[in-house]
Amino acid sequence: MSPAPLRGLTLYLVALAFQRGHELLISARNARRLRARGALEHGRTQLLPLIAIHAALPVALTLEVLLAHARPPAWWPVPLVVLVLAELLRLWSMAARGEYWTARVLVVQGQPRVRTGPYRWIAHPSYAAAALELLAGPLLFGAWRTALVLTVLNAFAIAARVRTERRALAKEALRTKW
């Protein structure tokens, strides 16, 4: 592989590590604050498959590029644009939720649902952004196997997570009602 795609891959992996690390710091800070306010966590074990999927991304991508000789396609600007838009959607959803944004499902009694920002149109914009990132990131380097496998696994994990969130919010609505 020529040095340019390897530099691109390295830059992408560094940016990804920075992004995920930054998100985890924000999530941990917000989770501490929410727990101090009495937030209850739901579906704690469901976070493990999501962590595994996102941790597998740099490993699988690197292996596919180095061992399976994946190469950036001629249409590489398309996944790059999708990747940038996904990141903007993620940042917008995090800003809209503010102190309530976490990687965990934490529910504070009596707190109304966020219906601003992208939440006006999309129920789970952060999950949509992550799905787009898992698809577009590997495709940027021609790693279609990584994109396919991780996107499918993520879809199953997110489906379970959304069901848990809905149950948690329904339970909270009943508790608040009484």
Distinctive features:
178 residues, mainly alpha, Four Helix Bundle (Hemerythrin (Met), subunit A), 2 strands, 3% strand, elongated
Most strands sheet: 2 strands, antiparallel
On the 0 to 100 scale, the average pLDDT is 93
List low-confidence stretches: none
Strand content: under 5%
Helix content: over 70%
Number of strands: 2
Globally, the shape reads elongated
CATH fold descriptor = Four Helix Bundle (Hemerythrin (Met), subunit A)
- In total, how many domains does the architecture comprise? 1
Named at the architecture level, the CATH assignment is Up-down Bundle
Q: Using only CA atoms, what is the Rg?
A: 18 Å
Total helix count? 5
How is this structure best described in words?
The protein has 178 residues and is mainly α. The chain has a single domain (3-177), classed as Four Helix Bundle (Hemerythrin (Met), subunit A) (Up-down Bundle), CATH 1.20.120. 71% of the residues lie in helices and 3% in strands. Strands 1-2 form a two-stranded antiparallel sheet. It is elongated. The mean pLDDT is 93.
Give the topology.
Layout: H1 3-36, E1 40-42, H2 47-67, H3 77-97, E2 105-107, H4 125-140, H5 144-177
Antiparallel strand pairs: 1-2
Helix pairs in contact: 2-5, 3-4, 4-5
Brief characterization of the structure:
This protein has helices at residues 3-36, 47-67, 77-97, 125-140, 144-177; strands at residues 40-42, 105-107. It is mainly alpha-helical.
